[in-house]
Amino acid sequence: MKVVTVVGARPQFIKAAPVSRSLRRRGTEILVHTGQHYDPSMSDIFFEELKIPNPDYHLGVGSQSQGAQTGEMLTKVEEVLLREKPDWVLVYGDTNSTLAGALAASKLHIPVAHVEAGLRSFNRRMPEEVNRVLTDHVSSLLFCPTETAVRHLDSEGIRSGVYQVGDVMADAVQFNRKLATERSDILERLGLEPGSYLLITFHRAENTDDPERLKEIVSALNALSAPAVLPLHPRTRNKMKSDGLSFNNRFLKVIEPVGYLDMLRLESGAKKILTDSGGVQKEAFLLGVPCITMRDETEWTETVEQKTNILVGADKRKIIEGVETFGVDFSEVQPVFGDGKASGRIVDRLWQDG
């Protein structure tokens, strides 16, 4: 069996790594990197650290408008599929790479398997929400990380080919957590003690493309009075520059983006995490770190229900209040994202349905 895997952004590299290991023990995987994350610090280091094979195709589609980027990806992925003639196209998550891979395959009548199917924020202003909904509706196999995701699909009339397999991020964290402790010295390099600092990430369009939201978040971070480290996403850096914003907080250490092992070490050592990333919310849960999410809603509703995550939007007062008061008793938290064996279930099902 031949499977074409389409990835393009760093969360997808993390999710694809454990599945790719399982796939290649059973058949042929053709790895397509769209180039959506084209900066070496956002892409190359992840392939190296996660031991992902070099892409068979690198499409070189960089930063563009939503429509232009998706359209160019669609054209180039279609060319690959016509050449390779795979049995399945495997896509992950909710990026433009996800949608382009799914649309290209469905128009060529190649079955699509969607990992992380059924997630919903119910905010159609988010490009990620549009991408995941459309991808689910053209997929033949829908691999859901939680029962909540299964229920979302059922409510939309999608019942065939739906499987609750657990979350591949749990696989990745289990596999790489010990490796990060052994190989990453980022805490030592930054002079950080475990449990003594905040970790911050934000990059989503809803926050960076809205000048008022961006200004409010930057103002909140400048007002923090606790040690904090912020690996700054290139998108965020560029938007701040164009909006005339800057950080002026002596407690805040702004650094370049980091690789996955460094990020895992930073996450696991953090006192609390502030983020707008879906993947980081989930990693915080899996690592037992309280999470403060700078969004108005989340597709990972389980983390809020388990009271390990709070939503503060782009509200300066709520962000600071969360930093000062939010705490979690992880002894009462249920393991809702599976047992770390989702990758094997995904590959087994591909072979059974292939």
TrEMBL record:
Keyword annotations of the record: Isomerase
InterPro entries, alphabetized: UDP_GlcNAc_Epimerase_2_dom, WecB-like
Record-annotated membrane-spanning stretches: none
Residue ranges of every copy of the UDP-N-acetylglucosamine 2-epimerase domain listed in the record: 28-350
Source taxon at top rank: Bacteria
Any GO MF annotation of the entry: isomerase activity
Family in the record: Belongs to the UDP-N-acetylglucosamine 2-epimerase family.
PANTHER family per UniProt: UDP-N-ACETYLGLUCOSAMINE 2-EPIMERASE
NCBIfam families: wecB
Protein name: UDP-GlcNAc3NAcA epimerase
Natural source organism: Melghirimyces profundicolus
